[in-house]
Design a protein that fits this description.
By secondary structure, the protein is α+β, with helices and mostly antiparallel strands. The chain has a single domain, classed as NADH Oxidase (3-Layer(aba) Sandwich), CATH 3.40.109. The chain has a 4-stranded antiparallel β-sheet with strand order 1-2-4-3, sandwiched between helices. Helix 1 crosses helix 5 and helix 2 packs across helix 5. Bound molecules: flavin mononucleotide. The site of flavin mononucleotide has 9 residues, from loops.
Length: about 200
């Protein structure tokens, strides 16, 4: 697949078919993820694959909780909240055959000293985010859909995802990525801004 095709066809997929994702495909996704740039060459990312029905149910509940919190924070009208609830709990929004939790190990760093704490943290998150983008583009090539879940980072939720993954507080959750075959043909969303609107040549 041409790079342009993968970039232009990637879009967030939130409904998946029940078809299982072969382990080989998951490993291809991870293989592409770890080709991403990584600050100071640290490679301090960890990809946790949630496969069992039991952990997926718990993770799905946490995503539902996060989405509710997200929309409550912007006072989404009651009927829209109800629609969201139905979509998630009855129509299977975000319910996927596999979830990949992307974490980074905060202990692994290059620059010592408190003055670099924040920068080291940001660099690690950025590295993991780049890995996620690689993973998402590879998924397009394999006919798989993905969506970046950030709401699982809300306080009270992130800790639970970490616990589900069997990790302690040395790990930071960068994102949860549901992965599966799309239930319907993905239709990439248009951008509101054109390249000309967001560029500045000096
Ligand atoms: C850091 C980050 C966090 C996101 N968190 C969520 C999320 O919690 N739930 C969700 O449904 N989509 C989430 N998204 C997906 C965005 O809503 C989506 O990328 C955006 O609307 C553009 O649509 P597209 O990906 O189809 O082009 C997230 C995306 C990013 C980059």
């Amino acid at each position: 697949m041409e790079l342009d095709e993968a970039i232009n066809n990637r879009t967030s997929v939130r409904y998946f078919s029940e078809e299982p994702v072969p382990r080989e495909a998951i490993m291809k996704l991870i293989g592409s993820a770890i080709r991403a740039p990584t600050a100071s060459g640290l490679e301090n990312w960890l990809f946790v694959v949630f496969q069992s029905e039991e952990v997926r149910r718990k993770l799905h509940e946490l995503i539902a909780e996060g989405m509710k919190k997200y929309y409550m924070a912007v006072n989404l009208p009651e009927e829209k909240m109800e629609k969201l609830r139905r979509r998630i709990l009855e129509e299977g929004m975000f319910w996927a055959p596999v979830y990949i939790g992307v974490f980074m190990d905060k202990r692994t760093r290059f620059l010592p000293g408190k003055e670099f704490d924040e920068l080291e943290f940001i660099w690690s998150v950025e590295s993991a985010a780049m890995a996620i983008q690689n993973l998402m583009l590879k998924a397009v090539e394999l006919g798989l859909g993905t969506v970046y879940i950030g709401v699982t980072n809300f306080q009270g939720i992130e800790e639970k995802v970490r616990e589900l993954a069997g990790l302690d507080e040395n790990y930071y959750l960068v994102g949860v990525i549901p992965v599966g075959y799309p239930r319907a043909e993905p239709r990439p969303r248009k951008r509101r801004k054109k390249a000309e609107d967001v560029v500045k040549f000096i």
